[in-house]
Amino acid sequence: MYRFAEKVPSPWWSEWKAAFYLSIIELMFLMSLEGYLLIMYRIDIFKIFFNIPLILVLLGLNYMLFLHNDKWKLYIKELDKQSRRQQLIGGLIVWSLVFLIFANLIFMFYLMSRIDWSLYR
């Protein structure tokens, strides 16, 4: 994500942009999980968990894991030590996971469009 953030038009604050992208992916994953729970078990975790404090916890967690004390620089150094082949495989794995999370969210929205919502009220 960091290298992607470096290549977008503005290379400043790339570490913050990478953490923001990671937060967006985490929220997409939580949204699809919530949708599947709603479809299968009629459990609406939006009422229980998904609110501003959850978003703040995710942002805080990403900050502590990556940005606090510039820990992201250590991760980048470790990734730069890998061979070109390992970097390519790692990049393919990361972008495949991002694609799968995004496709999963779209599929969940499709499933939700097929529901008779009168049964849920």
Task: Describe the secondary-structure layout.
Layout: H1 2-7, H2 14-41, H3 45-48, H4 52-67, H5 71-81, H6 84-113
Account of the 3D structure:
The protein is 79% helix and 0% strand. It has six helices and no strands. Helix 2 (14-41) crosses helix 4 and helix 2 (14-41) packs parallel to helix 6 (84-113). With 121 residues, the chain is mainly alpha-helical. The longest helix has 30 residues, at 84-113. It has one domain (2-120).
Summarize the structure.
The protein has 121 residues and is mainly alpha-helical. The chain is built from 6 helices and no strands. The chain is 79% helix and 0% strand.
Structure characteristics:
121 residues; mainly alpha; elongated
H/E element string? HHHHHH
User: Which bin fits the share of residues in helices?
Assistant: over 70%
Mean pLDDT: 82
pLDDT below 50 for ≥5 consecutive residues: which ranges?
none
Q: What class do helices, strands and sheet pairing give?
A: mainly alpha
Q: Label the overall shape.
A: elongated
Number of domains: 1
Query: C-alpha Rg, in Å?
Result: 18 Å
Strand content: under 5%
Number of distinct beta strands = 0
Structure annotation, total helices = 6
Largest sheet: none
